[in-house]
Amino acid sequence: MSGEGREIRSGGSGRVAGSRRAFLGTSLGLAAALGGALPARAAQQGVPRRRIPRGGIGMHLYTMRDALARDFAGTLERLAAIGYATVGVSGRHGYGAPDIRRMLDAVGLRAVLEHVAYPTLTGDGLPRALDDLHTLGARWPVVPSLPGALHTPDGFREAARQFNRIGRASREAGLGPVLFHNHGSDHVVVEGTNLYDVLVRETDPELVAFELDVYWAVKGGADPATYFRRHPRRFPALHVKDMAADGGFADVGSGTLDFAGMFAHARVGGVRQWLVEHDSPADPFATARNSYAYLAALRY
User: Fold this and answer.
1) Contact assessment for residue 249 and residue 279, using Cβ atoms and an 8 Å cutoff
2) Of 137, 138, 130, residue with least CA distance to 172
3) Residue 136's closest CA among 120, 117, 115?
4) Tell me, what CATH number does 30's domain have?
5) Burial category of 211 from C-beta neighbours within 10 Å (exposed 0-12, middle 13-18, buried 19 and up)
6) How far apart are CA 10 and CA 12, in angstroms?
7) In contact, 35 and 299? CB cutoff 8 Å
8) What is the pTM of this model?
9) Pick the residue with more confidence: 26 or 80?
10) Distance between CA 83 and CA 108 in Å, rounded?
11) Is residue 3 part of a domain?
12) Alpha carbons 129 and 1: distance in angstroms, whole number
């Protein structure tokens, strides 16, 4: 997915800083309007109310793929101005890892992970993928999905063996464990076996962890909060994606998912990154603004 470097825009740091300050003033006002009374009520009731650390609110760049294809540097600049601190890389649009790192550094964003295809990580591409993660400044290689042929209990057991091997290589390279990103079909029960649970049970927690997509987990009949409680520290990153009333995708905070209920157990689950995602946004920048405002104001 890497390619020849392209010219990178410069000179935008002043605009970013100014727009970031303007946005923070607006978002603080929004936070007060949406949740300002909540901590006071909670304090009266003796119930702690946490907030997502600002450094933990990120954007999974698949959401922004159309905008990135048109203007990669400009899209990152606008995300930084909204207030995002981190990104998950998913598709490079012809740029190499060094180019993307320069564009991220220019606007003060930090890559925390990259989605890399399962055949790449299980094949000869693993060393290069780990080198690229170092270049990006990221911590976690992520398997975004498994081939359909592996969607059997034996197939997931083979995947678990491969994940342990990949995770060991990642750790030896000075990175974090390999993560797995789920879809709804990963939560089905086949021959009496829950496929996702095979990966959780048969992987080494030191080598393998999970980037839980909460939308797809719920869609598949799973409860994210239950996973956090049953498997502590296995979920360092989330895809925060909301579900519309018709079961489709929605901007975070505008749908039906109980994020406060989920996130009340996020600490025991080991969550460190809350990455916004929407698979088919009508306006990706509106989605980015709406979702950030909701997460920044949320108390749980």
Assistant:
1) yes
2) 130
3) 115
4) 3.20.20.150
5) buried
6) 6
7) yes
8) 0.85
9) 80
10) 10
11) no
12) 10
